[in-house]
Amino acid sequence: MQAPPLPYCYKCDGSSTSQCSRCGRVFCAAHGGERLASQSSVYSRLTVVSARVLCDECTPNQALLRLRLGVVIAIALVAGTLVAIMTFNLRR
Ligand SMILES: [Zn+2]
Ligand SMILES: [Zn+2]
């Protein structure tokens, strides 16, 4: 069985390649794709940043999300370094 052909992109006349995982709109390669999106995790109060297929309308600020992702990585690195230093100091 073949999947039904998707209609045209919501923004232009290009044939759509994907469907937005948030609003369900279909879009061409130029008006959407795999973007970073923040999702609140059920298991922690932290907001998880992950890649999702989104249209341009649903795409959040990519620079802001990259910054947030960078901050999380930086905190993890600093915490890891601190733990390493503390372990090293305790052993002496
Ligand atoms: Zn388009
Ligand atoms: Zn959307």
Structure description:
The protein is of the alpha+beta class. It folds into two domains: 1-59, no CATH class; 61-92. The protein has one helix at residues 62-91, and strands at 18-19, 26-27, 32-40, 47-55. The strands form two sheets. Strands 1-2 form a two-stranded antiparallel ribbon. A two-stranded antiparallel ribbon has the order 3-4. The termini are far apart. The mean pLDDT is 87. The structure holds zinc ion (2 copies). Residues 9, 11-12, 14, 27-28, 30-31 line the site of one zinc ion (ZN).
Helix content: 25-40%
- The total number of structural domains is 2
Give the ordered list of helices and strands: EEEEH
Q: So what's the overall shape?
A: elongated
Radius of gyration from CA coordinates = 20 Å
Unreliable spans are none
Mean of residue pLDDT values: 87
**What structural class results from the helix and strand content?**
alpha+beta
Would you count the extended β strands for me? 4
Which small compounds were modeled alongside the protein?
zinc ion
Distance between the termini: 68 Å
The major beta sheet can be summarized as: 2 strands, antiparallel
Q: Can you list the strand order of the major beta sheet?
A: 1-2
Secondary structure tally, helices: 1
- Strand fraction equals 15-25%
